[in-house]
Amino acid sequence: MPLRQQEAGAEATLLERLRLQLSEVPETVDTLAFAARALLLAFLAAWSVWFIVHGIDAVTIGNSFLHGVDLAFHEFGHLFFRPFGEFMTILGGSLFQILLPLTLLAGFVLRQRDNFAAAVTLWWCGQNFIDLSPYIRDAEYRVLPLVGGGEESHDWGNLLERLDAIGSCHILARSSFTIGTLLMLLALLWGGWLLWLQRVRLH
To answer: What are the Cα distances from residue 62, in Å, to 5, 67, 72, 98, 153?
Structure first.
């Protein structure tokens, strides 16, 4: 068999294995647990619409319950990345917001075999991208109230100034919001697909 055909076959096999792993559901599904998952997914769908409709609005996003949760992990991220130098310490807050849900996602898929929980953490990852978008856009203006003090502690203002890219804050903010939106929608589709598969295993 030609090498290209072998490589194509290997890629197809890998994609099929990935599809099967991400579609795995329990052998039997408790009706009450199924209903709870369906209600949670409906709630997340409604919350997604709320985020998307309001766009990059600092007040709306900042008043969200999840903003307080995200902010706590953001601040921890600065401490976590401190050993890696000043630049990573500054970036670490935002980076940790993104990496934590993805780490949980990997754990749910690979260790817990709970794909629905993984879909929820993917949604949370998307929400974190949206949560960061007003902060990124504010890099040029530095008017948002900050936990760490005055405008000199503005992570994205400092990062983009170091990179001589302060003028890119608007496009970066829109990109972060768009990525977040797409991830939330993908998570909802994934969760919906899993519920569709679970419906035939109710008991």
So the answer is: 52, 6, 13, 17, 18
Task: Quote the CA–CA distance of 4 and 9 in Å, as a whole number.
Answer: 8
Tens digits of per-residue pLDDT, 20-61?
999 999 989 999 999 999 999 999 999 999 999 999 999 999
What's the half-sphere exposure (Cβ side, CA atoms, 13 Å) at 43?
8
> According to DSSP H, which parts of the chain are helical?
3-22, 31-54, 58-62, 65-80, 86-107, 115-137, 155-162, 169-198
Locate tokens 């949760």: which residue? 69
Q: What is the pLDDT of residue 3?
A: 47
Mean pLDDT of the chain: 93
Question: Which residue ranges make up each domain of the chain?
Answer: 26-201
Helix, strand, or coil (residue 23) = coil
pTM value is 0.91
